[in-house]
């Protein structure tokens, strides 16, 4: 220590230089590239996809894997696509928004994918980043907008112009994109990841079950069912039984005589088509779901799925189908066949990529 002090006295400029170097030294984003991506190789499909979506539900590891991880990434891998996966939310938590965006750009440049497939959560990806990828790198970019029912005016319409293509599941929004002069709109719909959601042939354990969060009027509906002595079990973040894993959820679907899909949007009063509309019948399970006129485009109502219009209608149909086993079993088999034939994510992605390429 004494020797270092003597050297510092002899050469004060060197001490000042070292102190200055430490103050201005910053992290080189390039050094973090290998930490931030997961690579899944394949030689089955010709398209290389760079997928940008949260790995964890709402970016929170304690809540389990995200919808996009379980359905989009899992389907793309098992369909035979070469995929590079990037989790912006976890990377942003670790290094901040600016550095995360720089890591993303560096990764995309190095991997040179055929398409960069985004599922935006909020405003984690900067507009300049999207322009850099699409215009300067000349990459095709796509974003799947999840909540155009209630986020079009506050979110989607501002981000859409920064992508080569966008996907919406809401037909009314497809018209509204054209009103803002954005033309590259692909209308698709939620589906079932049949590589994950499967028929398990388990004995029944529940009369009625619901898996999902208790937002909107859902707690009121459940209270009414209990009031009328309907034995209903609820699972999910916010209910007393809490969130269940994907495998546990699929077991619940298979073990329930009746699976409820309370399909109101998380905000507003719209009954929207949801992933559950396809996931439950995709497990070979019986479903009663909230009525939506658009559902007729995907199922034969009453033959493949059952819908309800209000709480009185729901109670009546639950009681009916708990008594009529043969009809219930026939409907669930018809719904199962329809989903596997037409409503898988593998099928949806094939059509989306056909439209783009």
Write up what this structure looks like.
The protein has 357 residues and is α/β, with parallel strands linked by helices. It has 2 domains: 29-187, Response regulator (Rossmann fold), CATH 3.40.50; 206-342, Rossmann fold (3-Layer(aba) Sandwich). 45% of the residues lie in helices and 15% in strands. It contains 15 helices and 12 strands. It has helices at 2-10, 12-24, 33-36, 67-78, 88-95, 97-111, 127-136, 148-159, 171-179, 218-227, 246-255, 276-282, 311-323, 325-342, 345-356; strands spanning 37-40, 48-52, 82-86, 115-118, 140-145, 165-168, 185-187, 206-211, 232-235, 256-261, 287-290, 306-308. The strands form 2 sheets. It has a 7-stranded mixed beta sheet with strand order 1-3-2-4-5-6-7, sandwiched between helices. Strands 9-8-10-11-12 form a 5-stranded parallel beta sheet, sandwiched between helices. Helix 7 links the parallel strand 4 and strand 5. The protein is elongated and about 95 Å long. The protein starts with a helix and ends with a helix. The mean pLDDT is 92.
Strand order of the largest sheet: 1-3-2-4-5-6-7
According to DSSP, the number of beta strands is 12
State the major sheet: 7 strands, mixed
The CATH architecture of the largest domain comes to: 3-Layer(aba) Sandwich
End-to-end C-alpha gap:
66 Å
Tally of individual domains: 2
Q: Helix and strand succession? A: HHHEEHEHHEHEHEHEEHEHEHEEHHH
Q: How many helix segments?
A: 15
Q: Which residues sit in consecutive blocks of at least 5 with pLDDT less than 50? A: none
**Percent of residues in helices:** 40-55%
CATH superfamily of the largest domain: Response regulator
Structural class assignment? alpha/beta
The general outline is elongated
CATH topology term of the largest domain: Rossmann fold
């Amino acid at each position: 220590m004494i020797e270092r002090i003597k050297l510092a006295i002899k050469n004060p400029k060197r001490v000042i230089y070292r102190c200055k170097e430490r103050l201005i030294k910053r992290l080189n984003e390039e050094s973090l590239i290998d930490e931030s991506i997961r690579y899944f190789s394949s030689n089955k499909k010709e398209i290389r996809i760079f997928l940008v979506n949260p790995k964890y539900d709402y970016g929170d590891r304690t809540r389990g894997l995200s919808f996009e991880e379980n359905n989009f990434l899992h389907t793309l891998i098992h369909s035979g696509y070469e995929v590079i996966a990037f989790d912006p939310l976890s990377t942003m938590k670790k290094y901040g928004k600016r550095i995360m965006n720089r890591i993303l750009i560096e990764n995309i440049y190095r991997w040179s994918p055929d398409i960069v497939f985004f599922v935006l959560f909020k405003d984690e990806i900067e507009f300049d980043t999207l322009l850099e990828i699409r215009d300067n790198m000349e990459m095709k970019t796509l974003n799947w907008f999840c909540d155009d029912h209630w986020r079009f005016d506050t979110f989607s319409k501002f981000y859409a112009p920064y992508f080569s293509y966008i996907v919406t599941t809401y037909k009314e929004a497809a018209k509204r994109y054209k009103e803002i002069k954005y033309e590259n709109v692909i209308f698709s719909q939620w589906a079932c990841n049949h590589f994950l959601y499967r028929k398990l042939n388990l004995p029944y354990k529940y009369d009625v079950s619901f898996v999902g969060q208790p937002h909107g009027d859902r707690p009121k509906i459940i209270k009414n069912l209990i009031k009328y002595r309907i034995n209903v079990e609820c699972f999910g973040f916010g209910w007393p039984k809490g969130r269940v894993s994907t495998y546990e959820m699929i077991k619940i679907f298979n073990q329930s005589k009746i699976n409820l899909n309370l399909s109101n949007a998380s905000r507003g009063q719209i009954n929207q088509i949801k992933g559950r509309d396809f996931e439950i019948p995709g497990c070979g399970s019986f479903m009663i779901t909230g009525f939506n006129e658009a559902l007729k485009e995907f199922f034969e109502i009453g033959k493949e799925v059952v819908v309800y219009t209000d709480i009185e209608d729901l109670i009546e149909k639950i009681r009916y189908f708990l008594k009529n086993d043969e009809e219930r079993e026939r409907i669930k088999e018809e719904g199962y066949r329809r989903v596997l034939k037409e409503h898988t994510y593998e099928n949806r992605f094939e059509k989306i990529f056909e439209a783009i390429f």
